[in-house]
Amino acid sequence: xxxxxxxxxxxxxxxxxxxxxxxxxxxxxxxxxxxxxxxxxxxxxxxxxxxxxxxxxxxxxxxxxxxxxxxxxxxxxxxxxxxxxxxxxxxxxxxxxxxxxxxxxxxxxxxxxxxxxxxxxxxxxxxxxxxxxxxxxxxxxxxxxxxxxxxxxxxxxxxxxxxxxxxxxxxxxxxxxxxxxxxxxxxxxxxxxxxxxxxxxxxxxxxxxxxxxxxxxxxxxxxxxxxxxxxxxxxxxxxx
Length: 240
Known about the structure:
With about 240 residues, the chain is mainly alpha-helical. It is built from eight helices and five strands, in the order ααβααββββαααα. The protein has helices at about 15-20, 30-40, 55-60, 65-75, 135-160, 175-185, 185-200, 210-215; strands at about 50, 80-85, 90-95, 105-110, 110-115. Helix 3 (about 55-60) crosses helix 4 (about 65-75).
């Protein structure tokens, strides 16, 4: 980086302007537009200059629609003036700060929009710009998702404590846990108890791994349909 010196160029701006700009509620994009306007007007000792939307968009690193919208808002508040001369857009900063509309629009989280209430904070995309969701809404969705995930895991842990063969816990898939959560603890508890009864009635059986049971085999035990194979059959005919 080169040594920054006034000799390499500077922009003369009256302190009164800086003091009054600091008091305005402006969005970050509006501030950036004003800086660029100052740079290419006062920075070259001129009151106005031809500045295109494309030039501003590149200088501020945003899209032209955003620039056009914010320019109009600044113009409506009489902070800038712009005129179209054919294909050329001539922009000037209005130094008469007494003419500025300091209360045009709605203030949301420290930023001002033109009559639109948003949930934005600095640097975030709002619902009022191109219909995109805000970072705040994304955070809410993440919190909701994390909360549901915790409930799913808590329910699974309770069911795991009830199951007799605690092997393969780490291989129970996330999708299986979600399905189990939708089934509910009552129905799953019934399936586990039915399976335990089946094991007691058929002592030769070994309990399947927990991973096998919880990855779908529980479906076989929602109802008691496993009759003991060790039960003695009673003949209806007398012995001869």
